[in-house]
Amino acid sequence: MRIMGVGRLDRLLSLVVLIVCFGTFFHLITSYLSESSGDPPVLISKDIISLENRHLPDQQHHPGSRINVIAPLQPQSATESPTTESIPSDETTEESGLQGFKIVGEGLQVPKGKDDSFLFIKTHKCGTSTLVNMFYLFGLRRRLNFVTQPWSRQLDVDKPLLPPRPGGDYNFQIAHVRFKPERQHEILPKFRTFYTTIIRSPIKHFNSAFAYFGADKKYRQGTDGEFLSLDETISKWLDDNKAGLEPNNTSCSLGNIVNGISKDLGFNKYLQRDGTLQEKIDDFIADLAQEFDFVLLTDYFDESLVLLKEQMGWEVEDIFFMKRFSTADRSRKDSELSQKTADLILKYNIVDVQLYNFFHQMFKMKVLAFGEKLLQEKTAEFRRLRTEFESSCFIKPEDDLKNQSFNKAWILTEFGKQEKSCTMLHMRDILLDFFVSELQVKKDFTLPNGDEIMKQFTKKNEPMDEEQKELVMGLQRSFDDHGVRPVYV
Which of 211, 198, 197 lies closest to 81, judged by CA? Predict the structure, then answer.
């Protein structure tokens, strides 16, 4: 039995704070000396998603547990609707082989030796559908070996995996998966792998999951047949599901709606341990802090990916993306929540609240280490370049507003037809996973028995057609010739 959650967390935070304090001191001094009287706008506001410290009435925090006193959270405004924000992150390699990420970056650096492979835990309802297309494009260009199971929405690392290219090792994972550190270490060893994931502020995440997993549709009609407001719908759902809302409940009957991010990251196994709920939460977060090299925030989507790009030494073009879904465009018009409902959401999502608390502080430390003004400048430049690229790829009919959030009505421009990345960023991620699997099994179409291997993993074993094959190979040729930079015509 392990009971060292609090001590480990204290030591970890103390070390991080000490290191950052030195860097921050010099950063502040140099900024003061070099800046004019006009200060730049603050990137990280002091009250951002600072949810109030909340815990179940029968739970007491450890005296001195830093996880409960750092970054106090306050409830989000009840009028705040969930959004999926934009994202930047880049990578470049000097060769088109399987491995070798170039490391550069100002103020940040990848831990030594972790430039060989990359693991991204895809959490539900955190803007990851946009991210994975970007990551697939990155791996396809460089012929990387993905950890995957063809045509599977959820990766199960305890089941057979598609093998890497003959003679190669796995070096890229981006699928939905319940995080199991011990198994992940076997597949992508931590000594050579950069581990990352993304999380989202609890109320925004709850609202998005509540709609996506069907609870809103099921509960929105009242007993008299009238349609309830979102606030009334959520209150009714919370009241009807009280038994399953307790964080100590291990049945997972409510799926990914309550504490969904923590479930994705493996919290359920901690419920089997002895100790109070707070001890389990502390232990869980302390372990994740050691596992992940960087945790992105959906609430700072663009900034997170710029920081990731700088740590990995990627190119800005590697983080170009097309927003595939926008929850904000699909949210209810009556999305305002009462303070009472917001408080209940925070109460029952106590694990996600404390998880976000901790990693939001870690994110702010990364910003300080990198330089807040520098991050603002690089993020603004990224947004400009990404928007120009998207406009070069597509014509967006203004009269088809219904499909704008899903980019169904977007039409490829002449440039978009030539630049293969436009098409790939626009397509369904499940199809890109199939492309990755096909290339991996057939070693880029050089192994004749690839179809037989694919049949062992999926009944959908029809090979890529010539148009799809040319799309992928054209992308790789372009990368071999001039890297990731688009050749504008």
Answer: 211
- Nearest to residue 319, comparing CAs of 387, 263, 375? 387
Of residues 11, 62, 54, the one with CA closest to residue 275:
62
Nearest CA-CA partner of 437 in 466, 471, 420, 460: 460
Structure token digits, residue 320: 């170009």
49, 67, 297, 362: CA torsion to nearest 10:
110
Q: How far, in Å, CA of 100 to CA of 117, rounded?
A: 8
Q: Are the C-beta atoms of 325 and 84 separated by less than 8 Å?
A: yes
Helix orientation angle between 372-393 and 350-370, rounded to the nearest 10 degrees: 100
The DSSP code sequence of 249-296 is --S-TTTTSSSHHHHHTTGGGGGGSSS-HHHHHHHHHHHHHHH-SEEE
List all residues 6 or more positions away from 336 whose beta carbon is below 8 Å from its beta carbon: 78, 79, 229, 230, 231
- pLDDT tens sequence across 63-105: 444 343 333 333 333 333 333 333 223 332 222 222 233 333 3
pTM: 0.77
